[in-house]
Amino acid sequence: MKKVLKISGIVVLFIILLMAVLPFIFKDKIMAKVKSEANKNLNATLNFTDLSLSLFTNFPQLSITLDDLSLANAAPFKGDTLISAKSFRITTDIMSIINGGEIKVNSVIIDKARVQAKVLKDGKANWDITKPSPPATTAAEPSAFKASLKKYSISNSYISYDDQSIGFSTVLNGLNHSGSGDFTADVTNLETETLIDSMDLSYGGIKYMNKVKLNYKAGFKLDLKNAKYTFLENELQVNQLFLKFAGFVSMTKEDIEMDITYAALKNEVKDFISIIPGTFTKDFDKVKSSGKMEFDGFVKGIYNEKSIPSFALNLLIENGMIQYPGLPRAINNIQVNTKITCPGVDADKTIINVSKLHVDLGQFPIDAHMLVKTPISDPDIDGHVKGNVDLAAIKDLIPLEKNTNLAGKVAADVSFKGRMSSIEKEKYEEFYAAGVASVNSLIYSSPDLPQKVNIAAAEMKFSPKSLDLTKFIMSLGKSDISATGSLTNYLGYALKNEKITGEINMNSRFLDLNPFMTDAPATAEKASGEPSTAANDVSGYIRIPANVDFTLNSTIGQLIYDNMTMNAVNGQLKIQDQTVKLNNLSMNTLGGNVVLNGNYNTTSDQGPYVTMSMNVKDFNIKQTAKTFNTVKKLAPIAENTTGNISTTLNFSGQADKAFNFIYPTLNGDGKFNTSIIEIEGFEMVKKIAETLKIDKLKKWKLDKLSGSFVITKGQITIAPFETKIGNYKATIAGTNGLDQSINYTIHMDVPKSDFGGAANSVLNGMVAQASKIGFKGELGDNIPVELIVTGTFSNPKVKSNLKQQVSNAMNDLKNQAEQKAREELERKKQELLNQANTEKDKLKKEAEAKIKAEQDRLKGEVDKAKAEAERKAKEEAEKAKNKAKDEIGKGVKDLFKKK
Q1: What single-letter DSSP state applies at residue 808?
Q2: Which 3 state secondary structure label does DSSP give 244?
């Protein structure tokens, strides 16, 4: 017996150990299987931080828990998280995993899920994430997963559904839903329970439900084989309105057949009133009411692409009264008769008939009726509203939040009758629209509003063509606004969601927007500069409607927004094609002036795309950095800089839903010029001074700068520009990125006398080393220094080529000395040559002089001899002449004597 017990104990222990070990043995296999199967078949990315397995939680089933599950969309919804959950647990048949066959899923438990479902205008849904299957060449293999669900639940969750194609949206907050049944059977009963803490529902820009509480307990008969689902016992509670459904929904091929009826379970007037936004309070169960109320309807027929089922909604309230606890007066004489009907097939056959709507707010009656036919093709409307209410009486009729003040008079008397086609064809004479709505001396303040609202006067006049704002004078605390303008096609906008156009001229002496700003959740950034998924949760992304074409001409004396004060604000804002366009928006701010032109484009679900052209004059640099986070991010040195800057800047980039720029998308270019500026306390500047051992460089004073820059994927590149840092000539160029990384090159001419002791020791040591090898000389007054600055702005790394530059300088001196020696040698050579040439010339001249003197002497003697010869010849000739003369004379005489 002891042996049997011992063996049994060992077996039990072995089983327990096996249960503990098996999950870890197959953990990696399961993780790989889940991710590969999902990402292989989905146009999205499935991820989770951890996977845990246990055989103890749901023995003998294996429990698989995925922590921090997320399913991220791909384009065109890239950046959105379709589904996230704190915990996602399924139970499976462990033997199906071990055998490697079909994995049978028995239950699904989801905790703290967040679902964001979207449909774009073109009908594209973000949950349509399954990849198209390739053409089948062989018989398709069965899926590795098989649902044999018996239980599922989702708790503490949030669901958002936004269908832009039909203008419908709803938000479910605090959702808890569970269901149980046998989904493996052909026919089974499903029991469900749904609790929603808060539900909002909007359609066509109108909020029909606001923070409504919902509780739905329902049973369904599921004919899974024939895809027919029948309502069993069920009860829907919406605030205090209780409804019951009956009938079925059947899905056959592409058609959906339905036959559903619904009706209010109770007929108290206050039950229906409770679903009207703003009327439901925590003490609503104590509200008194009387009168007759009926609310019912049906949906019956076939729904497909070509047909809709017939439907009807009926609401009747006769002689209704409602009085809130603690208030002295009741809302009396509530009369409502509303029927919405459609015979089916064609939605254009729908008729909306509010034949009676009357209520007495104390002594102030309000009457209205509305009939709409052919709402799809050509709305044919006949409506009228008339009333005159003193708002001060409201506090006696409807409970207002504590410390809420409401006063003023509202009046309206407006009628419409005709077809929309008359408006579209501009045949305004065929459409009747007339009346006036006005507000006078309205005062409203509440704890929810940061400033008291005071509308001194407002008046709108209705005509078939336009709605004219003839007067609007309002103050918000110390702020004031006055406006006039006109809206056209307002009826087409209200009834057919057509484009509305208009122009408003707004003036304000002082406008402070800060009290009305809401804090958006901080956006974490990834190392790449892309926003984390936390940005996707921001609900403050303002989308511009596509069907609005609106121009706002504004003149504002002083505008305060965030930490900016802007004066003399003038310009135009044009809303068009889901974009806000700035046209020559000019303002004085940050010590200077700026003119803006650009676009704020909201066509993307991910956030706005911004293109901007800025012409800035004399902005205070330090104040600009404190004001604009983008400037602080791209040029953090600005925070430590005093002086003014003027710049022309063109840039574009994608922002996230909190309007934080995604820096890798930033691109642009520009030019800048500055006044004399000073930089002090910046880590990079301090590091440069430390590297060069020059204390005066801890504070930079730069001459007026001018240069250009380019922004590429969030990285700014500054083209080389020349300046003076104190008395040092400098050239600066480089880049810095959104991750604070820097890569700058700075060339400076530094006087040798400005170097610190350590640097001078280096200089003198190099000169001493050079003298040992025979170099005799001195460095010049200025040493050219090149600095390479890398690292980050907060932790810069500075490298100097001072030694190399000194060595270069000494080589230059040596080369200069050698050149000088060569030049001196050449000079002396030339001097000697010149001297020799001079002596040669002197000897030549002396020889030439002696030759000339000899020649002159010889010439003299020759001339003298010649002269003497000539003289003697002359004398001889004279003698001969005279002798001849004498002889002739003697001859003559002798002749005469003979005769």
Answers
A1: H
A2: strand
- Nearest 5°: the CA angle 356, 494, 575 is 155
What pLDDT is attached to residue 147?
A: 55
Per the prediction, the chain carries an average pLDDT of: 80
Q: Which structural domain, as residue segments, surrounds residue 477? A: 400-508
Measure the CA–CA gap between 421 and 495, rounded to whole angstroms.
12
pLDDT at 1: 47
Task: Specify the 3-state DSSP secondary structure of 129.
Answer: coil
* Secondary structure of 816-881 as H, E, C letters: HHHHHHHHHHHHHHHHHHHHHHHHHHHHHHHHHHHHHHHHHHHHHHHHHHHHHHHHHHHHHHHHHH
Q: How far is CA 168 from the centre of its chain?
A: 25
CB atoms within 10 A of CB 877: 11
Beta-carbon count within 10 A of 600 CB: 20
Phi/psi of residue 11, nearest 5 degrees: -60, -45
Residues 772 and 720 in one domain: yes
Residue 623 lies in a domain: yes
3 state SS of 632: helix
Q: 716 vs 431, 467, 650, 666, CA distance in Å?
A: 59, 49, 13, 10
Rounded CA-CA distance 779/765 in Å is: 12
At residue 442 the predicted structure's pLDDT band, cuts being 50, 70 and 90, is very high
pLDDT tens string 830-854: 776 677 677 667 766 776 677 777 6
Given 488, 508, 528, the domain boundary residue is 508
Note if the pTM is more than 0.90.
no
365: cis peptide before it, omega within 30°? no
pLDDT digits (tens, 9 = 90+) for 168-208: 889 999 999 998 887 778 888 989 999 999 988 887 667 77
pLDDT tens for residues 628-649?
A: 877 777 788 888 889 999 999 9
Supply the DSSP symbol for 522. P
The closest alpha carbon to 863, from 851, 855, 874, belongs to 855
Indicate whether 71 pLDDT > 80.
Answer: yes
DSSP alpha helices (H): ranges in 395-534? Answer: 420-424, 490-496
- What phi, psi does 316 have (nearest 5°)? -130, 125
Residue with tokens 């094609």: 577
Domain count for the chain, please give it: 4
